[in-house]
Amino acid sequence: MKVTNVEKKENSTVELTIHVEADEFEAAVQKAYLKSRSRIAVPGFRKGKAPRKIIEGMYGSGVFYEDAINDVYPGAYEAAVKEQGLEDMGHPVMDIVEVNKEKGLIFTALVSVRPEAKVKAYKGLTAPKAEVSVTDEDVENELQPYVRRATRLISVDREVKLGDTAVIDFEGFEDGKPFEGGKGENYSLEIGSGSFVPGFEDQIIGLKAGDEKDLDITFPEDYVADLAGKAVVFKVKVKEVKEHQAPVVDDEFAKDVSEFDTLAEFKDDLKQKIIDRNMAQSEARFRQALLGQLCDQVDIEIPEAMVNAQVDRLVESYASRLEQQGISLEMYMQYMAMTADKLRDDLKEPAVTQIKQQLALDAVVAAEGITISDEEVDEEVKKAAANLNVPYEQVIEGLDKEPLKVDLARDKAMALVAAEGKPHLVAAEDDGDIKVTEVTKDDVQEESKEEATGEEAPAEEKPKKRTTRTKKTEEAAGEEAEKKPAARKPRAKKTTEEGEEAPKKTTTRKKKAEEPKGEE
User: Fold this and answer.
1) Which of 194, 295, 384, 410 is most solvent-facing, going by the fewest CB within 10 Å?
2) CA atoms of 353 and 332, how far apart (whole Å)
3) What is the pTM of this model?
4) How far is 390 from 468, CA to CA, in rounded Å?
């Protein structure tokens, strides 16, 4: 193999003319013949015994060329790219110039290479940065999850009030006949939660344990098809009334729910946690805004092949995360009524943004002459091993350190841009349009800084810690329908006390109702 011509083309591509000489190509043709002859029938010869010349005489001299080209092309291309010192970004385009017995194989390969980005300015960039302040109300809000977790449901001998939990038996009837999915026993219903159809919970107010009542209910028009808009009667019996008994928030409460002896110490700790969290978020948003400005300071032509390769990585990464949740990419796309082409189109813009950010940071690395030592790599690997709770030797074994060095160099570059940046302070609520993005890695061997766009997309990357966490998938995809009574109001989402979105449930009247036990 030899490279006979190298020509730079537009949009960060290089065209190589590669010559696989006659003797090398002849060996590939002979190999193709030996591999294929058993499948070729020639009159007068047993299968697999016909000489090559006979077969070529019957089917043409080039009968084995396609297989020979497929065999010899990858190695010749790889060797040519390495010889020219090119960084292949994937998806090369090959065209055959000439192929015959006398000259061998001559082909061109259009290679997409990493663009050479030059940064105009990266010091003194300005961006908004949220001021960090904490109010007494913020601390009280931070305290509330602890209060809710310590709150108990206590049985009371009185009428049901708004906010109480009523333990009920109920059964729904349409035209005097019970309908499927309309029955529940020992069901704990929080009055005012809005979890049952409109009008149901309101009619429970005022009842006491032992009371029975018929509730006239008309299902909403947008309810499940079999019951939408229909008038029904629910026969309800109240079995128990419970009220929420919140704890007294004092020093004893602090001792029970924290490591502190006094409420004041506990609140001081919560306040510091809020400050630390807000400062980290403010810094992340500031850096993200600077990174966007840094991208504007470089002129980059991104080859289409590079974008396609990055989209490939995003699809693979997203599919991997879905599989960790027991959902295949195909199942997800079916659930979302999405085609593979639509998914790739949605990922193209984030892919372009990530490439721009990487190249912009690489330009700063080059301008500053930033290097990463083996000692710094080892320190990073030790941190990763500690986060993963695995031995250092297990992580370092077989690790390709070069991608990690690239990633750490970009970290240094971003830190330098942030240190040299000029923040203009704004109120926290005024920087809501700045999206936070943090470093992500697909795995320890493919370390790369991936800054997401912050724009919602089916496969959007959410912020996550380096090498330690994976993103939660769309909870709805592939989840089994939860068994709910037909009286239950259909809801797409439920929120936990801590504010984290709980798994999405699907309401159906074709399954028997749950029979949850009352809370003690």
Assistant:
1) 194
2) 24
3) 0.62
4) 11
